[in-house]
Amino acid sequence: MAPDSNPFAMPLEHVQVQPAGGNAAQRVIGPRDFAAAWAEITAWEGYAPTPLVPLPGLAACIGVAALHYKDEGPRFGLGSFKALGGSYAALRVLAREISRQLGRKVPLAEIRQRRHRDACAAITLVSATDGNHGRSLAWGCRRFGARCRIYIHAEVSEGRAAAMRALGAEVIRIDGDYDASVRQAREEAEANGWFVVSDTSWEGYTDPPRDVMAGYGVMTREICAALPVPPTHVFLQGGVGGLAAAVAAGLRQHYGADSPRVVIVEPDRAACLFESARNGRPTAVAIEEETIMAGLSCGEPSEMAWEILREEARDFLTIPDALIPPTVRLLARCETGDPAVRAGESAVAGLAALIAARKSKALSVALGLDAASRVLLIGSEGVTDPDIFAAIMEGEDAA
Ligand SMILES: Cc1ncc(COP(=O)(O)O)c(C=O)c1O
């Protein structure tokens, strides 16, 4: 096989850092934040843990001892782990606002049980999204009876926009990229008295993003309960970094010193965490071309997520888009004898990076990966856009 016919043989860009010391994994989102989100979300109708799929056949092919893939496809019927974040943050925003209006602390359960129907119906929650966060927010707004406006950028697929409209959201498509949609959502919310429920944080805006990350903690708790032994590595795909930071913090709180080595994986077209690691501070990058990994197409890191990742992550990798279709097909076709998994483009970034890393001796050594490694992967979405999935499945892998 010619080396360039196999996309996994291309060297990946890698930055290794000495993580900053500190207790961000306890301080930025504390065990109490995670516990509160767990207590609330697991009480929702339709809650069920998502599968943690062991992939022993693939592990043997790749050359690691164990591989576990947390399949977030079935999460609340919404297709991704994001179902845990935006909806929970929406509930908390509503509870805070109605508490303010009534001059007493309104418990989340009162909002959930629709005891403040009229007050909720007068509140509009807004956010920018590349699809999955908006879907979660729209779903939460419908559940709790608030109005919802979602800002999407030019490249978000029509399938993803339609899914949000079907949940009752008003969807506004703007001309620019994801970061421009974040700015527009903020500006219009300020002008109209709406509430931004964002999955990314910035100076002075931290409550909803913390709640979003606390919601993601449900996934980490389920993983820790299901894993027989701690993993040695976790490969975490990064958009703004909220997923990675929430999982890294949750694992640290659970495993302490036995927490796995955290490897961050981003598209080379939107590598803001990689650049932040290189510079030692949150760094924005310009997105010149959209990546196929739509959920990871973010040029500005979440400041709050970065606070955690600068202490918890040791390695940052970027991957080219070319790795994604073959990895989606690999999981769906299960030629290794493992259960078939139907995954979206952003879900497989960690697996794609792992396969490429194991093909390089130097990168395996640098990441401390060997035949004894036990790797955890977050399958962050299922088939959130059936047309894109079908097109990928029709493609051919290089012989
Ligand atoms: C499927 C999927 N995976 C991963 C991510 C990355 O999450 P974060 O932006 O919190 O880093 C996203 C974000 O939208 C996503 O939709």
UniProtKB/TrEMBL annotation:
Pinpoint the Tryptophan synthase beta chain-like PALP domain residues.
Answer: 45-363
Q: Which domain of life is it from?
A: Bacteria
GO molecular function list: diaminopropionate ammonia-lyase activity; pyridoxal phosphate binding
Record keywords: Transferase included?
A: no
Membrane spanning segments where?
Answer: none
Which CDD domains does this UniProt record tie to the protein?
Trp-synth-beta_II
UniProt keywords (A-Z) are: Lyase, Pyridoxal phosphate
The record's annotation in SUPFAM superfamilies points to: Tryptophan synthase beta subunit-like PLP-dependent enzymes
Is DNA repair a UniProt keyword of this protein?
A: no
**Names of the cofactor(s):** pyridoxal 5'-phosphate
Q: Which Pfam families match?
A: PALP
The protein's matches in NCBIfam families, at most eight in alphabetical order, are given as: diampropi_NH3ly (TIGR01747), PRK08206.1 (NF006058)
Query: Which PANTHER family does the UniProt record give?
Result: DIAMINOPROPIONATE AMMONIA-LYASE (PTHR42937:SF1), PTHR42937
The protein, known as = Diaminopropionate ammonia-lyase
Q: Which organism is it from?
A: Jhaorihella thermophila
